[in-house]
């Protein structure tokens, strides 16, 4: 008989935990994990393929451990006077966050975030042996500077996660909250800007707060706006001393030569890669307006998804959409569901299906 998980000599602190498990069902309209549902533009795909082909010729050798070319590309993309020495990258921002926790959390330490927030923060925290502490949000999941700072001071964490804008609620985070939280802790403050490109263009990124704040880290990903989720590339900007700390915990050569080549090529075409962002934002706003017209409440979103409440039975609505070939996310918030903004066609399919389920109930 094959052994069961509970029969193995697993770490005590991992017993009973559930792995990350968003369903990966092969449905025609998949709007459940906040991907960019537009494929990489054809003209960019060719250039990326050429770069990967060139990298393949040297794949008998280990890649550049410091991925300097890619870091220069990210520094140029981010602007704000950043240079390669301010940049770190890994296989998805999940791995970037893991590196931070490995360096600054770990056994006997604490990481803190304001629930509900990205479900991987507690999982990554616990996997490093650290304790996860959850704070609370105000009305409509908004954070206010005073309450946020008080909660952080009280928890006295080693690492604070600020998701800006927040997943799974879409909620914007004000610059004042970030400043107040930074002052309230001696720990590392991670501002996770995974969805930043979908925020209003005139808004201030946390990148503007980096000068003089050596414990602040701003993380980003190519998975969302850049339509590159399958390539697994995330990155951050921080003081060079933070980057030195992350070098202590990364695996040698953690970013493959093929990943570096693909990401560098994609970055050279940033404006083309990002050209669907405005279209996705338009679909997001269309979802918000339409679900409101259907009698639900759409929370303000600066992301590529919408959380809406007023759903009598989220499990039943999720299933009814599933049965119509549409996959969205039941993230376990009362009477709420989350949907990613897709192409115009996908968004229409979702909205039509939701309207027909609503009128049948
Ligand atoms: C807030 C947030 N941070 C980080 C990630 C991880 O993204 P990736 O590992 O694909 O870069 C996600 C993915 O959904 C996310 O929502």
Automatic annotation (TrEMBL):
Which terms in the Gene Ontology molecular function aspect does this entry carry? histidinol-phosphate transaminase activity; pyridoxal phosphate binding
Q: What is its EC number?
A: 2.6.1.9
Q: In which pathway does it act?
A: Amino-acid biosynthesis; L-histidine biosynthesis; L-histidine from 5-phospho-alpha-D-ribose 1-diphosphate: step 7/9
Cited PROSITE patterns: AA_TRANSFER_CLASS_2
Q: Any keyword Lipid biosynthesis?
A: no
Q: Which residues carry this modification: N6-(pyridoxal phosphate)lysine?
A: 224
Which prosthetic group or cofactor does it need?
Answer: pyridoxal 5'-phosphate
Q: Source organism's superkingdom?
A: Bacteria
Q: Which InterPro entries match?
A: Aminotrans_II_pyridoxalP_BS, Aminotransferase_I/II_large, HisP_aminotrans, PyrdxlP-dep_Trfase, PyrdxlP-dep_Trfase_major, PyrdxlP-dep_Trfase_small
Q: Where is the signal peptide?
A: none
Q: Which GO terms describe its biological process?
A: L-histidine biosynthetic process
Q: Pfam families from the entry?
A: Aminotran_1_2 (PF00155)
Question: Keyword set for this entry?
Answer: Amino-acid biosynthesis, Aminotransferase, Histidine biosynthesis, Pyridoxal phosphate, Transferase
What this protein catalyses is: L-histidinol phosphate + 2-oxoglutarate = 3-(imidazol-4-yl)-2-oxopropyl phosphate + L-glutamate
Q: Which residues form the Aminotransferase class I/classII large domain?
A: 29-354
Q: Which family is this sequence assigned to?
A: Belongs to the class-II pyridoxal-phosphate-dependent aminotransferase family. Histidinol-phosphate aminotransferase subfamily.
Quaternary state and interactors: Homodimer.
Q: What is this protein called?
A: Histidinol-phosphate aminotransferase
What species is this protein from?
Answer: Microbacterium mangrovi
């Amino acid at each position: 008989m094959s052994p069961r998980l509970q029969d193995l000599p697993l770490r005590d602190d991992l017993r009973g935990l559930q792995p990350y498990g968003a369903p990966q069902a092969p449905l025609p309209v998949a709007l459940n994990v906040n991907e960019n549902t537009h494929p990489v533009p054809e003209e960019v795909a060719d250039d990326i393929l050429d770069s990967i082909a060139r990298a393949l010729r040297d794949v008998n050798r280990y890649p550049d451990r410091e991925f300097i070319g890619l870091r220069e590309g990210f520094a140029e993309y981010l602007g704000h006077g950043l240079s390669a020495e301010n940049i770190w990258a890994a296989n998805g921002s999940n791995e970037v966050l893991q590196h931070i926790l490995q360096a600054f959390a770990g056994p006997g330490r604490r990481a803190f975030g304001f629930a509900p927030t990205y479900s991987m923060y507690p999982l990554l925290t616990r996997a490093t042996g650290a304790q996860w502490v959850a704070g609370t949000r105000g009305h409509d999941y908004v954070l206010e500077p005073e309450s946020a700072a008080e909660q952080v001071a009280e928890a006295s964490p080693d690492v604070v996660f600020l998701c800006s804008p927040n997943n799974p609620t879409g909620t914007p985070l004000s610059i004042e909250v970030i400043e107040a939280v930074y002052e309230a802790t001696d720990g590392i403050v991670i501002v996770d800007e995974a969805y930043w490109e979908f925020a209003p263009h005139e808004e201030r990124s946390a990148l503007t707060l980096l000068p003089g704040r050596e414990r602040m880290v701003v993380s980003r990903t190519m998975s969302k706006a850049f339509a590159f989720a399958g390539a697994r590339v995330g990155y951050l900007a921080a003081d060079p001393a933070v980057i030195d700390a992350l070098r202590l915990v990364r695996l040698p050569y953690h970013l493959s030569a093929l990943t570096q080549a693909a990401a560098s090529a994609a970055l050279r075409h940033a404006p083309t890669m990002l050209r669907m962002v405005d279209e996705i934002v338009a679909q997001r706003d269309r979802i918000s307006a339409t679900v409101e017209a259907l009698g639900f409440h759409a929370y303000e979103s600066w992301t590529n998804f919408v959380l809406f409440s007023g759903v009598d039975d989220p499990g039943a609505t999720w299933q009814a959409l599933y049965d119509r070939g549409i996959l969205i996310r039941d993230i376990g918030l009362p009477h709420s569901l989350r949907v990613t903004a897709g192409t115009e066609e996908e968004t229409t399919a979702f909205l039509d299906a939701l309207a027909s389920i609503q009128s049948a109930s």
